[in-house]
Amino acid sequence: MRLKKLFLICTTVSIAFSSCNKDDDDGGGFTFEERDRGEQAVEDEERLVEFLSTHFYNYEDFQNPSEGFDYRITFDTIAGENSDRISILDSEELIEKTVNRDDVDYTLYILKIREGQGERPTFADSTLVAYTGQLINETVFNDNIVSPVWFDLPGYTTLNTNGQPARAGSVLPGFSESLTEFKSSTGFTVNADNTISWNNDYGIGAIFSPSGLAYFSSPPQGSGIPPYAPLIFKVNLYRVVKADHDNDGVPSWMEDIDGDGDLYNDNTDEDNFPNHSDADDDGDGTPTREEIVINADGSVELIDSNNNGTPDYLDPDTFK
Question: Where is this region: Disordered (predicted)?
Answer without folding.
Answer: 249-320
